[in-house]
């Protein structure tokens, strides 16, 4: 399982004077004497896992390959700088596919001022794989990491959750500008982007911070897509369940000190709504509280890559 491999790498990878922050966050932070700290991140998308090439315009896949990396830079409140693109193309129709991927990726790169500095291309008889590596710059507000949440901090989220499979997972807007705005204007203790699922990514953040988190279930903002998905599935699942576990919302979860959170929520400085959905608590674990105030454990659900 991916979490086991990460645990192995945490033990196995040697420390290095340049690594201000290594494996285990949304991106690594590199420190070099006399220069701004850099942020480094990579993502890999594969046909049949992250998208179905037979069913989507490859331009949307190319855009997503960059957008997921931008979302990780947003989670660090870092400014995007440059990237490289690696493609493993199927032999049949590879050239046409590569052009379409780039035609989707390049407008987003331009929008975020990312210099595409190069890449590498292979072809084989297997499915398409696309990997983007991005470098970003830490701003004076410092990198936003997963490990800084304190008991009492509010859990503040951008946007709404659930049902991303209906299209949002391909066409989402990474919260780069939002993260930079918030990091500059408010004290933020910790942050993560929601790639695997609201509950599981919140659990990751709480765990890294050595605390727990309680979600006020009725406060979780539900995306329209969460309701549409429930209608479509007709399987008795609820929009709240989808909001907590669907993944690929690519919104931000932030740990914000209480007074800062009050100010932020009153000012609503972004185009996208900011919502407090609970607070971090001393007791480790994930909890949910319903409208009547009853508290019970919440099982973190979301996407995990499985392998043996
Ligand atoms: Mg992430």
Please, could you describe this protein's structure?
The protein has 308 residues and is an alpha+beta fold. Helix content is 32%, strand content 27%. The chain contains 9 helices and 13 strands. The strands form 2 sheets. Strands 8-10-7-11-9-12-13 form a 7-stranded mixed sheet, with helices on both faces. A 6-stranded mixed sheet has the order 1-2-3-6-4-5, with helices on one face. Strand 4, helix 3 (94-111) and strand 5 (115-124) form a beta-alpha-beta unit. Helix 2 runs parallel beside helix 3 (94-111) and helix 2 (58-75) packs parallel to helix 5 (176-185). The mean pLDDT is 94. It binds magnesium ion. Magnesium ion (MG) is lined by residues 26, 72, 75, 193, 195.
Question: Could you name the key traits of this structure?
Answer:
single chain, 308 residues, alpha+beta, seven-stranded mixed beta sheet, six-stranded mixed beta sheet, globular, binds magnesium ion
């Amino acid at each position: 399982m991916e979490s086991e491999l990460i645990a192995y790498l945490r033990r196995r990878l040697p420390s290095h004077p340049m690594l201000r922050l290594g494996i285990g966050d949304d991106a690594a932070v590199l420190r070099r004497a006399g220069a701004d700290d850099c942020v480094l991140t990579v993502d890999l998308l594969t046909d049949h896992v992250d998208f179905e090439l037979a069913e989507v315009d490859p331009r949307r896949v190319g855009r997503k390959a960059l957008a997921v990396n931008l979302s990780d830079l947003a989670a660090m409140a870092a400014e995007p700088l440059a990237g490289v693109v690696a493609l493993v193309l199927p032999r049949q129709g590879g050239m046409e596919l590569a052009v379409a991927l780039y035609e989707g990726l390049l407008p987003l790169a331009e929008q975020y001022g990312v210099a595409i500095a190069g890449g590498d291309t292979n072809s084989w008889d297997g499915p398409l794989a696309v990997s983007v590596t991005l470098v970003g710059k830490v701003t004076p507000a410092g990198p936003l990491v997963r490990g800084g949440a304190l008991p009492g901090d509010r859990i503040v989220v951008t946007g709404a959750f659930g049902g991303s499979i209906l299209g949002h997972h391909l066409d989402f807007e990474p919260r780069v500008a939002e993260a930079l705005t918030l990091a500059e204007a408010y004290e933020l203790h910790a942050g993560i982007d929601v790639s695997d699922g609201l509950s599981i990514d919140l659990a990751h953040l709480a765990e890294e911070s050595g605390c727990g988190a309680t979600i006020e279930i009725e406060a979780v903002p539900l995306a329209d897509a969460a309701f549409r998905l429930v209608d479509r599935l007709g399987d008795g699942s609820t929009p709240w369940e989808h909001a907590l576990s669907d993944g690929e919302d690519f919104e931000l979860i932030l740990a914000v000190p209480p007074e800062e959170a009050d100010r932020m929520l009153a000012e609503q400085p972004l185009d996208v709504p900011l919502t407090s959905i609970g607070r971090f608590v001393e007791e480790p674990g994930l909890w949910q509280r319903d409208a009547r105030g009853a508290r019970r454990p919440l099982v973190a659900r979301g996407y995990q890559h499985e392998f043996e």
